[in-house]
C-alpha cells in the first residue's frame, strides 16, 4: 500500500505540490490527471524517491520513502532517452536483473520471456533506436516489469505515441495489470485515457501549489475495450466529470 | 561508387606527389630530392630486411620500434589516466568547477615547452621522453572525458537510480558509453600530440635511437635524403595510427550512433 500524507514539494521558493494526501491500495490502477505543468511529474518523482527532500510523509508498505524503494519501477515518457542506446534491447531489459545476482543465461532467458509478453519477439538483439516509438516504449515497459515490481509508476508513458499505437499499449497495460496485479500510478494529461485505464482517477489543480481537486472511483467493467467501453454512458459521464475538474480554476 | 570515392579522395595527394616529382626531377636540387628517390631510400633504409624480421632492417628495429614503443607507453598511460581522472572530475559538479581553471591552464601551455622541465627532473632518456608524452597527451583526453561525463543525460541518470545500478554498473553501462564520443575526440588529439612529443623529445641531445634521433643525426651529416625519408615515415605513421584509432572508435560507437548526447 502506498500512502501519501500531506505531501508538499518545492523548488526553492516555488511551491509545486501542496498538501497531497492519498492512499493507494494494493493492486489499484490510479490515474493522476492535471493540466500540463501542474506538478504531476514532480509528484511521481517524489514518490519514486528521486527527489530526496519533501514535506509530509510517504510510505510504501509501511516503510518511509527515502531514496528509491525496492520493488519499484518507473516508465518515463521519453523512451528514446530512458533506454540506453548503446545496449541491445535484451541488455536493456536484463539490466535491472543484475542486482538479483542471477547468472547471465538466466538473465537473458528472463528478459526474453518478458519481451515476448509485451509482444516483442525477434527484437532482442537489435538496438532500441532501430525500433519504432511504440516498440521502444514496449521495451521500456518490459524493463520495468522484469523485476516484478509491486509498484509501477508511469509518467505520461504514451504521450508521444500515435493514436493507434497508444491504444494498443493501453490495452497491453490493462492486460499486464490484470495478470500481475501490481499497484500502478499512471500520470497523464489525457482525460479519456485516465478514465479508460483507471480504477480511480485523481485530478490535480493547476500549479503552482497543486492539490487534489477530485478523487473519483471509476466503476466500469474490469474488461475494457477501446470501442465499447468508450461508448458506454458511464464512460461519457465520468469523462465529463474529470474534464470539468481539470478545467476548473 | 566506393571506388570513385576512393579515387577522388586520393587525387590531390597523388597529383601533389606527381608535381613534386616533376619539379624536383627537373631542378635536381640536393635539398629537395624527388619523392621516388625518397621512397626508394626509405625502402632501403628500413624495409629491405630479411623476411624473418618482416622485412625490417636493423635500422628500422633500432629506430622505429623504440620510438613507437615510447609513444605507445606515453599515449597508453595518458589515455588510461586521462579517462580515469576525467570521469572522476566530470562526475562531480563541484570538483569540475574547481579543476576547470587548472585544466584550461594546463591545456594552454604548449606541450613541447614542458620538455625542458622533465629534462631537469628526469635527465635525458626514455623516462623523460615518456613523461613528456604523458604530460602533453593527457590533457585533451582528460578534459574531453570530464566534459563527456558531466554531460550525461539527467534522465538516464534517473533511470540508473530507479534501476538501482551500483556505482560500477553506472560507470560501465551509462557514464563511459555515453561519454565515449567525447573520449575518442580527446584520444585523437592526444594521439597526434603523442607523435609530436615523441619526435620532439628525441630531437634533444642524449638520445641514442628513435626516428627523431635519425632526423638530427642525418641532418648533422647533411644527409637530406634520410631527413626527408624520416619526415615521410612520420606522416605515414601519424596517418596509420589515426586510421587505427578511428576504426576502434567506429567499432565501439557504431552501435549507439543515434545517441544525441
From TrEMBL, chain A:
The cross-references to PANTHER family, in alphabetical order and at most eight, read: ALIPHATIC SULFONATES IMPORT ATP-BINDING PROTEIN SSUB, TAURINE IMPORT ATP-BINDING PROTEIN-RELATED
Task: Extract the SUPFAM superfamilies matched here.
Answer: P-loop containing nucleoside triphosphate hydrolases
Q: Could you tell me one molecular function GO term of this UniProt entry?
A: ATP binding
Under Gene3D superfamilies, the record lists:
P-loop containing nucleotide triphosphate hydrolases
Pfam families in the record: ABC_tran (PF00005)
Return the protein name. ABC transporter ATP-binding protein
Query: What CDD domains does the record point to?
Result: ABC_NrtD_SsuB_transporters
Domain ABC transporter span(s) in chain numbering:
2-231
UniProt keywords, alphabetically: ATP-binding, Nucleotide-binding, Transport
Q: Does the keyword Nucleotide-binding apply?
A: yes
Amino acid at each position: 500500500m502506498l500512502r501519501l500524507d500531506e505531501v508538499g514539494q518545492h523548488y526553492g521558493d516555488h511551491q509545486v505540490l501542496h498538501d497531497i494526501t492519498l492512499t493507494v491500495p494494493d493492486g489499484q490502477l490510479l490515474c493522476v490527471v492535471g493540466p500540463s505543468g501542474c506538478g504531476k511529474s514532480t509528484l511521481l518523482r517524489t514518490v519514486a524517491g528521486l527527489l530526496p527532500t519533501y514535506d509530509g510523509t510517504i510510505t510504501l508498505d509501511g516503510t518511509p520513502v527515502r531514496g528509491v524503494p525496492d520493488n519499484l519501477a518507473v516508465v518515463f515518457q521519453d523512451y528514446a532517452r530512458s533506454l540506453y542506446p548503446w545496449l541491445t534491447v535484451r541488455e536493456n531489459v536484463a539490466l535491472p536483473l543484475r542486482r538479483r545476482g542471477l547468472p547471465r543465461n538466466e538473465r537473458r532467458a528472463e528478459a526474453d520471456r518478458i519481451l515476448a509478453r509485451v509482444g516483442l519477439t525477434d527484437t532482442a538483439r537489435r538496438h532500441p533506436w532501430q525500433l519504432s516509438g511504440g516498440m521502444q516504449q514496449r521495451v521500456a515497459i518490459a524493463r520495468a516489469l522484469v523485476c516484478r515490481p509491486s509498484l509501477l509508476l508511469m509518467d505520461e508513458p504514451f504521450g508521444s505515441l500515435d493514436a493507434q499505437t497508444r491504444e494498443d499499449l493501453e490495452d497491453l497495460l490493462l492486460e499486464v495489470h490484470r495478470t500481475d496485479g501490481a499497484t500502478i500510478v499512471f500520470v497523464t494529461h489525457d482525460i479519456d485515457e485516465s478514465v479508460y485505464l483507471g480504477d480511480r482517477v485523481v485530478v490535480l489543480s493547476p500549479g503552482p501549489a497543486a492539490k487534489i481537486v477530485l478523487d473519483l472511483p471509476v466503476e466500469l467493467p474490469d474488461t475494457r475495450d477501446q470501442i465499447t467501453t468508450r461508448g458506454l454512458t458511464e464512460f461519457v459521464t465520468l469523462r465529463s466529470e474529470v474534464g470539468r475538474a481539470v478545467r476548473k480554476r | 561508387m566506393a571506388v570513385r570515392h576512393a579515387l577522388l579522395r586520393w587525387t590531390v595527394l597523388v597529383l601533389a606527389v606527381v608535381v613534386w616529382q616533376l619539379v624536383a626531377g627537373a631542378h635536381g636540387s640536393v635539398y629537395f630530392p624527388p619523392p621516388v628517390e625518397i621512397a626508394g631510400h626509405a625502402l632501403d633504409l628500413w624495409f629491405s630486411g630479411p623476411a624473418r624480421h618482416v622485412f625490417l632492417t636493423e635500422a628500422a628495429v633500432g629506430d622505429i620500434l623504440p620510438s613507437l614503443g615510447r609513444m605507445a607507453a606515453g599515449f597508453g598511460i595518458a589515455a588510461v589516466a586521462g579517462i580515469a581522472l576525467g570521469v572522476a572530475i566530470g562526475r562531480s559538479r563541484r570538483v569540475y568547477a574547481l579543476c576547470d581553471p587548472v585544466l584550461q591552464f594546463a591545456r594552454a601551455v604548449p606541450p613541447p615547452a614542458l620538455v625542458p622541465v622533465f629534462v631537469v627532473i628526469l635527465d635525458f632518456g626514455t623516462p623523460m621522453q615518456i613523461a613528456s608524452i604523458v604530460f602533453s597527451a593527457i590533457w585533451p583526453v582528460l578534459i574531453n572525458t570530464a566534459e563527456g561525463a558531466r554531460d550525461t543525460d539527467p534522465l538516464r541518470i534517473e533511470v540508473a537510480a530507479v534501476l538501482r545500478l551500483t556505482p560500477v554498473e553506472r560507470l560501465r553501462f551509462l557514464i563511459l558509453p555515453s561519454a565515449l564520443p567525447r573520449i575518442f575526440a580527446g584520444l585523437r588529439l592526444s594521439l597526434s600530440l603523442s607523435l609530436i612529443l615523441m619526435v620532439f623529445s628525441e630531437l634533444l641531445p642524449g638520445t641514442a635511437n628513435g626516428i627523431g634521433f635519425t632526423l638530427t643525426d642525418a641532418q648533422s651529416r647533411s644527409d637530406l635524403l634520410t631527413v626527408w625519408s624520416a619526415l615521410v615515415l612520420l606522416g605515414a605513421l601519424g596517418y596509420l595510427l589515426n586510421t587505427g584509432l578511428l576504426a576502434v572508435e567506429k567499432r565501439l560507437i557504431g552501435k549507439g550512433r543515434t545517441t544525441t548526447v
